[in-house]
């Protein structure tokens, strides 16, 4: 199912010559906020100085793979992730004493499949993942779904850029991909409310309900759980406040 010839070739960003992304209008950093973009480890490793999807600079990524090893250090926990696309990558979680951190650490079990959300960093020429969300997979069908999302994202960007003939707005890409990935109207409504919150503490369920009186509280609670598991939103200083991963 994870054969490299099926998922590795044709969907990776080639490294830019000279060690960095060429400064052209098509490759400059796009304005606006970005969503969590599904990708493979091969895409990350083979990217240039900036993680790009077409002309879009990717800020946050989602990867699914198996934890090969876990190393506990005084200031951080490092783990090796393998998604069978020909490469492995190191994920890093810096140690704190928060409840959220304890939950995160509990997911790091060797030989288990996990969904990881984070940002790509380059340290001494080596790509690593700065991780802020890890969830164990409960259904291995999520692996196939993730690979489908990776392929779709690549094709969607190519199609929209070819149609427009110039770099597209990041917000348009986020909306189109979000719809294609199965977000319902109510899910997108809840996500936008959380996303538009500028308060560092985030919003509570009650805040979201007040902003969306037409949506039942039970539905909002289910949607928040879904968006959290998918890495689109996260809890802040406690388990009752939420903020979007890509909020400005």
Automatic annotation (TrEMBL):
Keywords: DNA replication, DNA-binding, Nucleus. Residues 7-21 have a biased composition (Gly residues). One of its GO terms (molecular function) is single-stranded DNA binding. Its main location: nucleus. The keyword Hydrolase does not apply. The keyword Transferase does not apply. GO terms for biological process: DNA replication; double-strand break repair via homologous recombination; nucleotide-excision repair. It holds the Pfam family RMI2. It is found in: Nucleus. Residues 150-239 form the Replication protein A C-terminal domain. CDD domains: RPA2_DBD_D. Residues 1-34 are annotated as: Disordered. One of its GO terms (cellular component) is chromosome, telomeric region. It comes from the Eukaryota. PANTHER family: REPLICATION PROTEIN A-RELATED, REPLICATION PROTEIN A2. Belongs to the replication factor A protein 2 family. This is Replication protein A C-terminal domain-containing protein. It comes from Ornithodoros moubata.
